[in-house]
Automatic annotation (TrEMBL):
Residues 44-266 form the MacB-like periplasmic core domain. PANTHER family: ABC TRANSPORTER PERMEASE YTRF (PTHR30572:SF4), MEMBRANE COMPONENT OF TRANSPORTER-RELATED (PTHR30572). One of its GO terms (molecular function) is transmembrane transporter activity. It is found in: Cell membrane. Pfam families: FtsX, MacB_PCD. It comes from Edaphobacter paludis. Belongs to the ABC-4 integral membrane protein family. InterPro entries: ABC3_permease_C, MacB_PCD, Macrolide_Exporter_MacB. This is ABC transporter permease.
Length: 424
């Protein structure tokens, strides 16, 4: 009657059989699997740190990419195809040794429109600050912007009550105004109540025909404040008596045309002014590029922080493998006595360490990918997934196994076969 053998004794018998000849790599892998099966609980607990570390790397990269995508989408909504020309500095000489700022003019905008193709909307912007009267002797400080009807398009404005002034209002110089939503509520209690009311600016009466708000979040990159009134540009010139403008807005047909168009617009405007005057085309392309780099750098830093978990797990693997070597001293002695070389012993235990870390990294990688995939499949939110994060997680797991498995493997390889056979 055959005596049943336990899994540990069966593994030991295979070890004896394989030690009689030089091992091939497939035998090393098989021995690693046998060792794992013989100590499932201990190895699973050791793998837990690798699972958490690998999953953390993937989730951190996923969160970083999601945050980057959200931020860039919000910034892009401000206007990826917008060119905003700004006056920076420079003066022109005047009478009696005086100088005046060499501001852009309405004619500059017309010159650009004549020479630069694919501009779908444009608007000058003249800015003045006055107190407005709403009747009963009540006045409020306000910022009055003289713009064209196309300003609504180039600045992504949303009309919440009434209407925006049109080309006919501009051509006839009608004294109408559109006010920002917070100002309407502060003056009249609600947006709808503001429409139809009269206000006065420097004694000139304006009728409020609409209330607006910014259609997208501008993160402070806006000339519009909570006390802003928009009036037709020709009407705003009553207050300055000149065709000077503070800024000029252009909207291109395609975002890809923004960079070359901004250079062309700048060249045209500079050619119409003194060579010492400075103007700046503000476009979102450069800003978006900087924000993308910042987001990528933050993701890298957070990923490095998450990789600390893998290093801690590597220490756990090293301790587990050292205990494994101690528990298998007699087995190592028998293998050496039967002809196994130090290199083969080293390779065997190093393979076990790599198998342990890589298995944990694989489970963690699958878990880290499963979470964003589940969110994308089960909800309307689309989470970006980086396959490179999976490659990095698996590669780091293998590297941790090699680094922290080297010490136990070397210790096993250096054991004296005579002393190991005497070990009890």
């Amino acid at each position: 009657m055959a005596i049943p053998t336990s899994p540990k004794s069966a593994s030991f018998e295979r070890t004896l059989a394989s030690a009689r000849s030089t091992m091939v790599f497939s035998e090393v892998v098989r021995l690693a699997v046998d060792s794992f099966r013989a100590n499932k609980v201990r190895f699973l607990l050791t793998m837990l740190g690798m699972i958490i570390g690998a999953a953390s790397i993937i989730l951190v990269v996923t969160i970083g990419k999601t945050g980057k995508q959200y931020a860039l989408n919000e910034l892009t909504s401000i206007g990826p195809n917008k060119v905003e020309m700004q006056y920076v500095g420079g003066t022109t000489p005047g009478p009696n040794n005086t100088t005046t700022p060499d501001l852009m003019t309405y004619e500059d905008m017309n010159a650009v429109l004549d020479q630069v193709p694919d501009i779908v909307a444009s608007s000058p912007m003249l800015e003045v600050h006055y107190s407005v009267g709403i009747g009963g002797g009540v006045t409020k400080d306000a910022m009055l912007l003289g713009v064209s009807p196309q300003y609504k398009t180039v600045r992504n404005l949303a009309v919440v009550a009434g209407r925006f002034f049109d080309d006919q209002d501009t051509a006839s110089r009608t004294k109408v105004a559109v006010i920002v939503e917070p100002f309407a509520k502060a003056l009249f209690g609600s947006t709808s109540a503001a429409v139809g009311h009269n206000i006065t600016v420097e004694g000139i009466p304006f009728i409020i025909i609409g209330v607006f708000k910014e259609g997208v979040t501008t993160f402070g990159l806006s000339e519009i404040s909570d006390q802003t009134l928009l009036v037709p540009y020709p009407v705003a010139r009553y207050f300055t008596g000149s065709d000077k403008v503070k800024e000029i807005f252009f909207t291109m047909r395609d975002p890809a045309e923004v960079v070359p168009a901004s250079r062309q617009i700048l060249a045209i405007i500079k050619s119409r002014h003194r060579s010492s005057s400075v103007y700046l085309p503000f476009i979102m392309t450069g800003f978006l590029s900087i924000m993308a780099k910042i987001a990528d750098m933050l993701t890298v830093v957070l990923s490095l922080a998450a990789s600390i978990t893998l290093i801690v797990s590597g220490v756990g693997i090293m301790n587990s493998m050292l205990a494994n070597v101690q528990a298998r001293i007699k087995e190592i002695g028998i293998r050496k006595a039967l002809g196994a070389t130090s290199l083969e012993i080293r390779l065997q235990f190093l393979t076990e360490a790599v198998f342990l870390s890589l298995a944990g990294g694989l489970v963690g990688t699958l878990l880290g990918l499963a979470i964003p995939l589940s969110v994308s499949l089960l909800t309307p939110y689309k989470i970006p997934i980086s396959l490179w994060s999976a490659v990095i997680a698996l590669g780091t797991s293998m590297l941790v196994g090699i680094l922290f498995g080297t010490l136990p493997a070397n210790r096993a390889a250096r054991l004296d076969p005579v002393q190991t056979l005497k070990y009890e």
